[in-house]
Design a protein that fits this description.
The chain is of the alpha+beta class and 339 residues long. Helix content is 41%, strand content 20%. The radius of gyration is 21 Å and the shape is globular. The two termini are 15 Å apart.
């Protein structure tokens, strides 16, 4: 059996969602991974299953799905039983209540329901950490779809977890190993992203309320979807070529047009007066390449350099001292695994 003192730590960044192509499946869309806010999960040996206090229910559900996945790999009729699956037998034999005898701790996590894709990053990080601690190495599709159970509406955060970068997906991703419907480009390393948040968030949309919100929306007209796809592709072209001015102008317009699909729920292209005011603040402060991430309330502004990001941040704070401002880097790599 493996060293009982062994631990596995998984670290990932955050997902900014620039916008969807449609309000009905296949959704598709464009987004970017950033290095912060960071999500970090560690799994180590324990006398019994111990998910801690933070996100305990989520972690317990993931652990049960990991056990079910391992059981399937070890079934008598399983075609792909391997040494890694056999390694899991010993550890699962030590389990209590059908759960592995281990300690899972969320050392860091992005704020929930703020436009960072925190649920996907945490679920994938915990799933990967627990699988590796048990000696399992599932395929990407298995990790995303079966264990973490993410990527059902947008695949940006799931793809970004593995690869980082700026991402375009057409809404038809069903195998996270063969990413033919996906385009990824690496942003210039000098670029920065300023994140702007209100001191207190207003109405938040997630879970059941998000499902209800989508159900009340009309499907995008074919011409609108095609225009958003074209603009999304142009946005990635500009990023790949290091053409910041074009990238920034395309991003601002793309985000506003995509947000227009959600006017019935948001009251406009941005989620309520609070986010609209932040957008106006960024515009008046000289920002470019700005928009709302997912449902907000986080607003982003991409900057050509760290100096430009610091200058914008100073202007934002001077104009509105109550806002929370932070500068992060685009993530050019995916998840980091330490074991």
């Amino acid at each position: 059996m493996d060293d009982p003192a062994r631990s596995v730590r998984v670290t990932t960044g955050a997902r900014l969602h620039f916008g969807l192509f449609d309000t009905r499946s296949p959704f598709g869309g464009v987004g970017m991974m950033t290095d912060q806010p960071e999500t970090r999960v560690i799994v180590s040996a324990a006398d019994r299953f111990d998910p801690g206090d933070q996100d305990a229910e989520r972690l317990t559900r993931i652990a049960r799905r990991v056990v079910a996945f391992a059981d399937g790999r070890l079934a008598p009729d399983a075609a792909d039983v391997d040494d890694m699956a056999e390694t899991a037998v010993g550890k699962l034999a030590e389990s209590t209540d059908g759960l592995p005898a281990c300690r899972i701790r969320v050392e860091a996590a992005a704020p929930a329901h703020r436009g960072f894709g925190s649920g996907t990053q945490l679920s994938l990080a915990a799933s990967l950490a627990l699988c590796r601690w048990l000696g399992l190495w599932p395929a990407r599709r298995e990790l995303v779809s079966e264990i973490a159970q993410r990527g059902r509406r947008s695949a940006i955060g799931s793809i970004g977890f593995f690869q980082g970068g700026v991402l375009f997906e057409d809404g038809c991703v069903d195998d996270f190993g063969e990413l033919t419907p996906v385009r990824r480009v690496e942003p210039p390393r000098d670029w920065r992203v300023v994140l702007i948040q209100p001191s207190a968030a207003g109405e938040l949309i997630s879970g059941a309320s998000e499902t209800e919100a989508f159900a009340g929306l009309d499907k995008a007209p074919a011409g609108v979807r095609a225009d958003l796809q074209r603009r999304g592709a142009g946005l990635l072209d500009a990023c790949q070529n290091g053409d910041f001015d074009r990238f920034a102008s395309e991003l601002t317009l793309f985000n506003r047009l995509s947000g227009g699909l959600f006017t019935k729920q948001q009251g406009g292209p941005y989620h309520g007066r609070q986010v609209a005011d932040l957008i106006d603040l960024v515009r008046r402060s000289g920002g470019s390449g700005y928009g709302q991430s997912s449902w907000g309330p986080t607003v982003f502004a991409v900057c050509v350099s760290d100096a430009a990001a610091q200058e914008l941040s100073q202007r934002l704070r001077a104009s509105e001292p109550s806002v929370v401002v932070r500068t992060v880097r685009p993530a050019v790599r995916g998840v980091r695994l330490e074991d």
